Each structure stands twice: as structure tokens, then as C-alpha cells.
Amino acid sequence: MSFDRLIAKIKETGNPSVVGLDAKLDYVPEYLIQRFQEEDGASLQTAARAIFAFNKAIIDEIYDIVPAIKPQSAYYEMYGYYGMKTLAETISYAKLKGMFVITDGKRNDIGATMQAYTSAHLGSVKIGDNEIEPFGADALTVNGYLGTDGIKPLLDVCNSRDKGIFVLVKTSNPSSGELQDKLIDGEPLYARMGDLCETWGADLIGEYGYSAVGAVVGATYPEQLKELRARLPHTFFLVPGYGAQGGGAEGVASAFDANGLGAIVNSSRAIMCAYQKENCDPREFAKAARREAIRMRDDITSYIKIK
Amino acid sequence: MSFDRLIAKIKETGNPSVVGLDAKLDYVPEYLIQRFQEEDGASLQTAARAIFAFNKAIIDEIYDIVPAIKPQSAYYEMYGYYGMKTLAETISYAKLKGMFVITDGKRNDIGATMQAYTSAHLGSVKIGDNEIEPFGADALTVNGYLGTDGIKPLLDVCNSRDKGIFVLVKTSNPSSGELQDKLIDGEPLYARMGDLCETWGADLIGEYGYSAVGAVVGATYPEQLKELRARLPHTFFLVPGYGAQGGGAEGVASAFDANGLGAIVNSSRAIMCAYQKENCDPREFAKAARREAIRMRDDITSYIKIK
Lengths: 307, 307
What we know:
Two copies of one chain form a homodimer.
Chain A lengths: L3 H10 L3 E5 L8 H11 L3 H19 L5 E4 L1 H5 L2 H17 L3 E8 L3 H11 L3 E3 L2 E3 L6 E4 L9 H10 L2 E7 L6 H4 L2 E2 L2 E2 H13 L11 E5 L4 H10 L5 E3 L9 H4 L10 E5 L1 H4 L1 H5 L6 H17 L6
Parallel strand pairs in A: 1-2, 1-12, 2-3, 3-6, 6-7, 7-10, 10-11, 11-12
Antiparallel strand pairs in A: 4-5, 8-9
């Protein structure tokens, strides 16, 4: 009913980072694609199977040093329902290895429909006498533009199944300010969205002081990161934009509290494509991912101390 | 590159309404579920197959009198990747019957990831020498909270493949005002989002004066519907909330222009579950859906005249 499970994993690994598993087929080494293409031709199924093999190898190399993965739904939907099968299998495999899984779907809708998204990604559906978890992640990113009744079904499942959500507050992209920075009664829209996170999570606070309602705040806006950390004491942050998008570890440090907790920093491409940057044997892609995950951990923890 | 194809279908059928195909298993008659349960047990596959059979029968009964369907992604994701297969099959079948398909996914993300959602739902992916459309809808609903760079990839595909998008402006749910009604420089956030729709669509205007960038505006807020119709002359409206959520045809009429164009009104549950309300033989569910679709068309067109 809070982010305690995630925080415990962060403390255990001494690593407040999450690996974004957002594999486009371009990221997957050619030899791996060929293996499946021989069986299924140049098809969505081939793409989906190659991506699962890629994800699985990376999970096998990082699960002991990284607390969580964040698969981005878009990159699975891109390969149709075979891609969604790979999403389900990736989530399932990472959980089996003890990792915390955040599905990055930025879902949003009115209450009744949000209930369906909640069942899909964090809950279960009942079919006949069976109760089945369709995707079964530990947490889901969501968009709060529709207000409280679009968030309410998620809070129920956070409470009953020990799950979490991350609400988009201040996103990492260049145009995030177009709407999010606009002033409402003298304060930016993102701050108001942040305040709603505190309200929504008020009854779901765990032993570290953080609720089950987190916020997405981009590493590319370190000023806002600092301001929001002070403003939202019970809101755990998911911080995208480190590395590839230009956010540095020093700026990211302001997302954390005095105990080195309160945030988890995402890196996707830099880890998945570390083998390309290293220019090593493509068959070493998972080991290269591990090396980059260690480099990132050490970079961030040179600025913060987890107590 | 605009909503001309949709408008042509609306004129052809004399019907500015869209049927939301958002089937929960509860909506599907028991005899249909049983047929698949005998083969696959109480599984996600059974649910997904029963829902496709349900959708297909409804499409067969309405394709000649209704211009479009709007499958809501949440209700397919709820049945895992088998559900997503049903989404793809439903879209494909409706297009085969000449219907316009709006996938209601309310997707949103930063630019690079939005490109993946665009490829998934409106575009194609390249695998080896093959170019494959994963879901292939005609239009997609999206959430604009991230600003222009999260919308840009969609505009490219609207232009190159004659597709459309609907941006959430003023949603139909009770708490939509929590953020959307807040004033920014004296004007509500939803009006500012609406203005962005006009900007985003400026280079994609078709022969009826409407661009490829539409807006979602709820039937439950007729005042705002009227205000936005006047304010956004090139923005085509998708209007949810008619019927079940309490929006009436008289209020909905203000979504239309002087030619009876400019909007399409959604009904989901009232049509899918018409057989329950009629209390007719469940085997007549598709015929009951047709009767309700005709009733809805006549209700709306008693207030507007399509020229």
C-alpha cells in the first residue's frame, strides 16, 4: 500500500536506479533477430520474440544489482499483440527474479474505464471461477489530467494489492512547460498536480514516509526537481531524462531526501545500447548493460548517500 | 490528412454518431461465452474470443447505418495480449466493412516514445523487408499534457497516411474541472488545450474546414461544448458522455456547426447492452444494438440537420 517494497529493494541493492526496457528492434543485436527470423520470417512475432530474448538476457545480468525495471508500453504495442505478449512475459520474468516492475503506460481515463486499466496492469480479472492477472506489474505511470475520479480506482488497488502509481507532474521533454509551467493562482500547473499526488496518497503512507502515489519529475529540470522535493514530502519520484536526454547526476541528486531516499532514476537507451557505445562484441550486450548499470549507480551514489 | 474521410461517412449514413465497442465480459451474452469456454476453459483467451464474436456481430448489424466505431483500449488490455489480439481483429474487421475506426487510447508521452505509439496505432513498423501495421486505426485519442513535442509525431502520420487524432480538451467525468477548469491568464486550461488543437491542426485542414486534430469534449458539459464550438472553428469534436453518463441530445446539438457537421457523438454501453435493457432474447443482442443505434441517430438528428 506504499512504495515500501521498492524502497526496500533500493536499500538492499544500494542503487536508486531503474532500467528502462524499451527495446526497439534496432537496439537488438542482429544475430538475435536472425535466430527468430529463420523460424517466423520478418514478422511482428519475430520482433517480439527477439525483444523478449534481449530483455531476458539483460534481466539475468542486472537483477542482483538493480532494484527495478520500467518497460515502456509504447515499444511493445509497436509490435502488436505479439509485442504485448513480450510485455507480459518480461514483467513476469523480472518479478520471478525479484525485481520491482513499473509499467510505463501513462494511462488515463474516466473512472469506469480507469478501472479496466487498473485491472489490466495492476489488478486482475475474473473469468468464470478463475482470477487472472493480465499484466501484473507492481506500479503504473498515469496521467492526472482528468482529476480525482480517474485516479480513484488505482488507489483502491494500491491499497488492496500493495501496488503503486506514478502521476506525471513535470515531464522531461522540451515542451513540457507549454501547459505544465502555466500559472494557476500564481503557481504552476505542475505544482498543483503535485499537490494532488499528496492528497491522493494521504491514506497510503508507508514506513519510510512515502505513499503509494508517486510522481514523474524529469531530470532535465533540476530546479523544479528541488522545488518539488521540498513541496511533496510524501511523494516518491520517478525521474526520467538522466543521460540520453541530458540530465546529470548532480542535478538528479536534488530529487532525494536527507536519507538518500525518495526517488528512483531511470535510464533506458544508455543501458540497452551500452554494447554499441562500447563497440564490443554484440554477443556481450547484456554484460555491457551491466557495466553501464554499475557506472550509473556509482555516478548517482557519488552525490547521495542511502541511509 | 484531415477528418474528410470520417465526415464523408457521416454524410453518407446521415448519422453523426460512433459506437463505442468497449465490451467487458459482463456485457457478452452467456451463451456466447460458453461456446468458447468449452474449448479454452475460463481463460483470457476465452474472454478475448467471446468479445471478438460479440463485436463482429454488432459490426455486421450496424456498418450500413453507423459511420464509425470507437474501441476503448483499456477493455482489451484488461484481457491481456489475447485482448489486444481482439482489438487488432476488431479494427481490421470494421475497416473491411468500410467503417472509420477511432482507437480510444488517450496515449501520451515524450516525442521519441510518442513515435512508437504512433507507429503502433496509426502507422507501421518495418521488420526486415516488411512494412506491417500493428493495429492500423484511422484515428487515436491522445492526452496533450506534455505539449507540442508529444504531439508532433502524430501530425506527421496524419499528413502522410490520412489519419486523425482527438486531443482530450474537456472530459466528460465529474472531476474533469479539478484541473481543466482552472484559470490561466483568465482562461480555463481546457480552452488553452483547445487553442493548441487549432495550432497543431493548422496545416492539416480538409475540404469541410476541419483539420486532422480533433478534440474530446464531453456531452456532460453542454455550456463548454457550445463555447468551444465557437472558439475552435477547425477542430472536429468527439463527444463522449451521451446517454449513460447523462448528456442529452439537446445539449449535444451545440457541438455541431451550421451545416450539422463538426462533431461525432459516442455511445457505448447503451448500444452494446441494448438487449439487456430491452430484455429480449440474448441471441438478439446485435439486432437490439441496431435498434438502439437507430434510436440514437434519430434522437440527435432531431436537433441538427446534416447539410
